Amino acid sequence: MFDAHDFSVPEEWAKRAHADNDKYLEMYQHSINDPEGFWGEHGKRVDWIKPYSQVKDVSYDAKDLHIKWFHDGTLNVSANCLDRHLEKRGDQVAIIWEGDEPTDDKSVTYRELHAEVCKFANVMKSRGIKKGDRVTIYMPMIVEAAVAMLACARIGAVHSVVFGGFSPDALAGRIQDCESNAVITADEGVRGAKKIPLKANTDKALESCPDCTTCFVIKRTGGDIGWVEGRDLWYHEEMAKASADCPPEEMSAEDPLFILYTSGSTGKPKGVLHTSGGYLVYASMTHQYVFDYHDGDIYWCTADVGWITGHSYILYGPLANGATTLMFEGVPNYPDSSRFWQVCDKHQVNIFYTAPTAIRALMREGNGPVEKTSRKSLRLLGTVGEPINPEAWMWYHEVVGDTRCPIVDTWWQTETGGILITPLPGATKLKPGSATRPFFGVKPMMVDHDGKELDGACEGNLCIADSWPGQMRSVYGDHERFIQTYFSTYPGRYFTGDGAKRDADGYYWITGRVDDVLNVSGHRMGTAEVESALVHHDAVSEAAVVGYPHDIKGQGIYVYVTLTKGFEPSDDLRKELVQWVRKEIGPIASPDLLQWAPGLPKTRSGKIMRRILRKIAENDYANLGDTSTLADPSVVDDLIENRMNR
Ligand code: WT7
């Protein structure tokens, strides 16, 4: 472990910061001792149409579970991200778009973005889309993705963004689950000079979504696409006819803003539901404090809008704060692995936020690609998505940040809406690999297996004891599942699914998921999802999926497959099954290693003992534990003998 005092920021830097340590402690205490008072005050950072008189109405009791913030207030999220900035910063750039090719970029001012959003809101209205309807967005990282999201917010439609890397089946499942009647896509996406057939995927998905009767198509590449008359509409043609006058819909604080599907421990992804008022207050406040955002800063988060990071920290947080936010269409290693830093120089980026997996991959390419760029504009670095190993942290700090930039290691989840555990730059002493301390209003709690609260330095499961404004409100269409998933393991507390350590300074070190959820390159995936994709294949009789440590991805996907009678193991079949999973879910779910398993270790009652499979995948046979309760202990020897060489 590294010493805390090695990483303090320069004096000038600290003076400019929104908080020093004393201020952090004072504000934190206030937020915990008097949440009503604290959030009553900070809720005013957004513009309300009708101000709230109620701040917090929350019960974590499973029998009466409800979470409401500012609930008698009304507002419009798009008006907060656009209209309210027009007077002061209408001509300031809202979005810098950097295309896949380094020669391709553009800037959109707040005024231009506002006009575009109003027009598209009118386009949607003209197709009968209205407040409360669900609209699915399946787009590349282009400005129109932001326009689509904000236009939904403007008319009160609930967006569900589906990451462009997901398969037609995955898209269809999400459209069906939330009963979307419209989808917005592009002809093709482009990443790393490769085309992604978004419209073709959408056409395929819509074959099984008869109720989805509108498909808006943005022309990105001009490639050949199919067309369904009456259903499909070109974005540019509709926009040419639309008026730029569209008053924002008055929304109640607790009206849904968006649904975002994420993986859990069952096969079916859940629709995480976020609402309007509390979410925006929390996203904007965390964006300001965690990134020490000041007017005029150029801010870049490299995530995709298909993930929560893109929602809260490319779009809603930064735009609510009137920031200039950069949207990047490409990948870190195209045209070469210097790209991130070239973009930082080109657009004079001050704040840069990315994932540990990207840092590890770039670190592998050596210092050359970094050092040939200036990076003088950088002031602050951030990470999100998975634990960052101290080596990668140090490289990020020393090589990318020239030892000058603090790093904020931000821990949070799709469910939390915004960052919960993080340093505040300038206020928090950094320890490489630790997400450090809770943000205002967040009350972490460490518990053991039985739910007993642990004190002081400890290791256990991470819960949050009370609500914060950005918390998810429900699982779309299945409130019972919401209660079951998050509030039943440890009654009365929100269970994160993560394990953690807390050190003597009260710093948190997230150790990773303790449930059947994998984190592969920062992408979240349920083992059950991959298993259910595999067993759809005729050759597969049974499948078990576990994670194993992977140098770049954090976790890799290790698959054990038992074949159906009549099928023989072969390299061709192995390749076919890997392709199958890519087709069923998407490339992010590609198995890294696939082992033929004539039998799986099961208890006498038939339950697969994943613990043993995990140990084999981790190459840790010494700690297999007790195998005597297995129905057939000999299967373990076979699995060890035939494990995939690495
Ligand atoms: C899971 C949530 C929040 C946006 C990206 C991922 C892991 C996230 C960290 C971090 C260690 C982290 C956790 C969490 N995670 N950030 N800084 N240190 N682990 O959102 O897809 O909902 O995944 O990502 O395991 O539970 P998500």
Give a quick set of tags describing it.
single chain; 646 residues; alpha/beta; GMP Synthetase, Chain A, domain 3; eight-stranded mixed sheet; 30 strands; 31% helix; binds 5'-O-[(S)-butoxy(hydroxy)phosphoryl]adenosine; AMP-bd_C; nucleotide-binding; AMP-bd_C_sf
3D architecture notes:
By secondary structure, the chain is α/β, with parallel strands linked by helices. It has a domain at about 520-640: ANL, C-terminal domain (GMP Synthetase, Chain A, domain 3), CATH 3.30.300.30. The chain is built from 21 helices and 30 strands. An eight-stranded mixed β-sheet has the order 12-11-8-6-7-14-15-23, with helices on both faces. It has a seven-stranded mixed β-sheet with strand order 5-4-17-16-18-19-20, with helices on both faces. Strands 21-22-24-25 form a four-stranded antiparallel β-sheet. Strand 9 and strand 10 form a beta hairpin. Bound molecules: 5'-O-[(S)-butoxy(hydroxy)phosphoryl]adenosine. The site of 5'-O-[(S)-butoxy(hydroxy)phosphoryl]adenosine has 22 residues, from helix 12, strand 20, strand 24 and strand 25. 5'-O-[(S)-butoxy(hydroxy)phosphoryl]adenosine (WT7) binds near residues 308, 409, 496, 497 and 519. This is Acetyl-coenzyme A synthetase. It is an enzyme of class 6 (ligase).
In short:
With 646 residues, the protein is an alpha/beta fold. It contains 21 helices and 30 strands. A hairpin with a 6-residue loop joins strand 4 (93-98) and strand 5 (105-109).
